[in-house]
Design brief:
With 262 residues, the protein is of the alpha/beta class. The protein is built from ten helices and nine strands. The chain has a single domain, classed as NAD(P)-binding Rossmann-like Domain (Rossmann fold, 3-Layer(aba) Sandwich), CATH 3.40.50. The two termini are 34 Å apart.
Length: 262
């Protein structure tokens, strides 16, 4: 399937690892220009070097996403380099386990800032360019915004906001030809998830317990599978999809897990 993304300028936050990295690599294969915004300078240079060796174009900018000034400088650099922005993928975030019982107001608001504040900032900064290009926004969200998880009030609230903002922005920007959709992630095997599993008393047992609750094949979603869906939503092949939350989770959220557990 030709996604017609060649030479499209796409901003990807958190592009130096996990889901974001896979989105960037997929964009490079399609001939798009991925603009990676991340704080991990070493990873940025390593990934961009590999992509450039393949003959693709990539642009990497070390960015502190919780600092609006840093985000503004990044967007300004992208516009100076390419003169346009065709798409934005809001992806960066961290399940920081900031709970109501053991957290406080400052930790809660910091979690919101870290996990949804920069979604708002990047949309605000890229909106003038997206209006010109009739571009596309894809927000990566966690199922915790719908299901909750327990013990992670900040992250759950931030993801509830991500899902709500997706719908609000889709309605707000439709007159400009801008589409806004969300990809909702449940049990996806990322470096962060692997780290968390390895902190458990019995990692192998915990892994099997979680996998057994994933209806489709009792297996984790891969980062590439998330990235494949994101690219489809960025492309004109999804031209009639707007304001939607697409669950790429093997049926984890909406199917009867008990009946399907292997």
């Amino acid at each position: 399937m030709n996604l017609n993304l060649r030479e499209k300028v796409i901003v990807v936050t958190g592009g130096a690892s996990g889901i974001g990295e896979n989105i960037v690599r997929n964009l490079a294969v399609e001939g798009a220009i991925a603009c990676m915004l991340d704080r991990n300078e070493k990873a940025l240079k390593s990934i961009s070097g590999e992509i450039e060796e393949s003959g693709a174009t990539v642009f990497q900018i070390r960015t502190e996403l919780t600092e609006p000034g840093s985000c503004r400088k990044a967007v300004d650099q992208i516009l100076a380099a390419f003169g346009r922005i065709d798409g934005l993928v809001n992806n960066a975030g961290l399940n920081d386990s900031v709970s109501l019982e053991f957290g406080d107001y400052e930790k809660f608001t910091a979690s919101l800032d870290k996990n949804v504040g920069h979604y708002h900032t990047l949309v605000e900064l890229t909106l003038p360019s997206l209006k010109k290009s009739k571009g596309t926004i894809v927000n990566i969200c966690s199922k915790t915004g719908e299901t909750g998880q327990g013990g992670t009030s900040g992250y759950a609230a931030a993801n509830g906001a991500r899902i709500a903002l997706t719908k609000d922005w889709a309605d707000s920007f439709r007159s400009f030809g801008i589409r806004v959709n969300a990809v909702v992630v449940a049990e996806c095997w990322t470096p962060q998830y692997e780290w968390w599993i390895n902190q458990q008393p019995d990692p192998e047992k915990k892994l099997k317990e979680i996998g057994a609750k994933i209806p489709l094949g009792n297996r984790f979603t891969t980062c590439k599978e998330i990235a494949d869906t994101v690219l489809f939503l960025l492309s004109e092949n999804s031209i009639s999809i707007n304001g939607q939350s697409i669950y790429v989770d093997g049926g984890y959220v909406h199917l009867d897990r008990a009946a399907n557990a292997g």
